Structures
1.
Amino acid sequence: MLGFVSAYIPWNAISNLELRRPYKALRDDLVLPSATTLSNICRREYALAVDAIKKQLPFQNKVSLALDGWTSTNKLAIMSVIAYYMDGKWALREVQLAFDEVDRLFCSHF
């Protein structure tokens, strides 16, 4: 699943026999999931991640949001949204809310 996500391969490509053949050649007992199963796994993991982030954020405290942008070693423009807050013991905490590649048309530092 990670390979499909990182390579921007659509879920329905898993149904392609030519794509499945090398996986089967490497490991004959491998059972590849369907596109629907991959989508369901992705939705479930996303919901778990959102719930985990919501549990970390304070209920009635103030939260500061920050945007952070940088260029990776392979020249990808990356942007992250981070929430900062103080916990009950006055310790500074941070939670990453979003992380995505940014279109180079919107970046002026390239």
2.
Amino acid sequence: MKIPRFGLNRFDARSVDAFATDVRRAEALGWDAALQPDSQLRRRDTYVLLAAAARVTKRITLGPLLANPVNRHPTVTASSIATIDELAPGRVLLGWGVGDTAVRLAGLKPARVAELEASTRLMRALLDGEAVEVGAPRAARLPHHRPVPIWIAAGGPKTLRMAGGIADGVFIRVGTHPANIATSVDAIRSGAKDAGRDPASVRLGAIFHTVLVDDPVRATTMAKSMAAGYYEYSPRLFDPPGLTWTGPDPETLKHERQVWPDFHHAPDLEMSGRAVDFLPANAADAFALRGGPNEIVSQLVAVLRASPAEFDYVVLHPIPNPPAPDEGESGYTARVAREILPRVREALAAR
């Protein structure tokens, strides 16, 4: 069975130097990809951070996860990511999506699927060195173009189908339940076929919220907050696993229980998880990996084996958000690299 490249999307971003040092550390620990959210009101500039990391690393893949066409014009993003690839040739990707928290915190609305598609096509052409009509007197062209792969992060059926038709790769963001993953892979493949592409040419990745908390009660509570976060933005994801939302609507709950900005990013995930304690444990299991290393290894191997397609990348999104700096050898970055990744790689290789 194919062993995916494992990525991390949370680093010490207290300063540019701290970020670069943390990414270099992750590379030394055995992580395969360092991916950084493009969220201007929560973190320092993504491309400045990535440039600093590119200067001090040799192997690890770098890129935003994710950028969007709302906060920056696509021509700006294309120029930025091509510049990063100059610093780290062949080990850069562009994670692209509609934008959720980063957009909402700025009082803006996430991009529609049509806007995401148009911006992807524009950037793909620019990164390939083509001239693009943008409404200016002359066609736009990127003088420092680089063939950086564009990966669309998606969870809804329309976005997944569109991504299958145009993206180099697709990061599936639907949780861990086999039914949601299978439905997503089907949508990507259908989109590729409709676009006249070979479905096998579209690379696949997955983003799994990973609650590395040894206390099972705390782990379950935080994982319930993850389940609520998925329902908050994509209620249809509860259908394939056969789940039912039995509480008040998420917006009412967020207002009453002071959950901000959403169930995925609340500062106190135990508090936000208790707000949705009406959710059963199998809802937590459908949208997150949870527990200590033994539990997470078992769950992750089972999820990957049950998938109808193999993944090129698996991003293990840390829950709760690690402190900066993290706890060193007892922190998420080191523990996952030491106690989880080798065992998962070994199990997949043995099949």
3.
Amino acid sequence: MAPTEDNRPVAFVTPLVDIETTDDGYVIRAEMPGVEKGGLEITVDNGEMTILGRRKPTEFTAELIYREIELHDFRRVYELDPSIDVTKVGAKIDDGILTVTLPKAETVKPRKISVQ
């Protein structure tokens, strides 16, 4: 729960994620059904990455008689490893799956040293 500008609490749902490591960095895949590109906000500040996904309300053409699907927005915060190059973080969303790539800085990647 987080307060809004008028101090009303807003409920967020924590999206389910898979996180994998690669030679180049990390990849986060998050389930965010109902979220489109315009409803995403990803920020990096003080070593933390915040993912916020806002869903569009469902419009019904008939009278709604029962509802189980909650329209809460998604929110998740990650503490980032200092080895991540935050200037090159990338994201895309496709069919309700958000993919965030977190590349390692070139200075921390393993490299081959040539022997003379």
4.
Amino acid sequence: MAENSHKTNGARTRTVVRALTGFACGAVLLAALPVAEGAPVSSNKKEDGFQSNVPAAVLLDADSDSILYEKNGDQLVAPASLAKLMTLEFLFNEIKQGRVKPDDEYIISENAWRKGGAPSHGSTMFAAIHSRVKVSDLLQGIVVDSANDACIAVAEALAGNEASFGRMLTQRAREIGLEHSTFTNSTGYSDPDLRVTAREMAELARHIIHTYPDFYPFFSQRDFTWNNIHQTNRNPLLGMGIGADGLKTGETSEAGFNLVGSAIQDNFRLIVVVTGARSDKERADEAKKLLEFGFHDFQARVLFAEGQTVGDAKVFGGDRSYVPLVATGTVRLMVPRNNSQRLLARIVYTGPVPAPITKGHAIGKLRVWRGENLALELALQAADDVGRGSMSQRAMDGATEFMIGVLRAGVSKL
């Protein structure tokens, strides 16, 4: 085993190197390159032999959380009605936590009616002004009709107004791991501060699918009638016979035509995001093309079995020098069929990790590249407890770290 490290805020970010063999996918190399912990790592490289015509796109395997295709996935874009997925996630979580009940009724205020209802000539469920609508019906209105009046009613009920609700959405986005997307309203109405990334929209969809299995079937609902007005689901993927069962479309003059979709074939679920398409036809065609590419050209390979040691982290002041690291569950990666692309993996953590360490403590990340594409990033945790070492062990670790610091300082002056 070898290590490479550099100093970050008093500790060093280490990248552990180890040659790994015997996996179903063949050899995997954990390579030593200095990657700063917390720095954004992304790739806009396209998979060989495949191109998408939209400005930004992501294809994600929902099971392994591995990227099959990415084009400008970290570019901030206007989401249009894709922002409603965050409104839905917030409401799903409120119901799951018991703070909201599906039978609760929210009022359609004059503001919600004028700005998002029939007078707005936009996407609406045509709820009557001052009427009281059950949360379960508002959910269907948002999912099937992309109803702005329903979204505004939810925002006003939970936060008092749209601006406050936007801040709550952004805070919730950070809680579930969306680090760059910012929300300012419940509907996706154009706002210079309302921005998302295709990668985070894919992660949001994955979170909804895995966290709210009782609510996810709403997204495959084909139609909804309210106030005697029948409307059909706007998601074009649902009628293509490709196993699609969600999620959301959006379009404005600023954003273009956007889509977050998901489909499942042979227990293999993919999530697709396209943004900035020039027409609803291009949006549908590109999303379908991406899904077909994933289903036909990729297969799952196991990198690490559940509980298998991925690598080790250096310990400071412990009764042992290293702690083994594991991931949660089986680590799988989607790899192209009949393709010998090299897999490159890096374990990145800030260390040495001070003892004592408790089993399950989060320590760093595993990042895996497929060719030149960052395909997988997941958290690692300690596989065992590590107790505090003796006085002599702690003294030896301190002296070692001091000498490493001196040597590195000397090298940096050369």
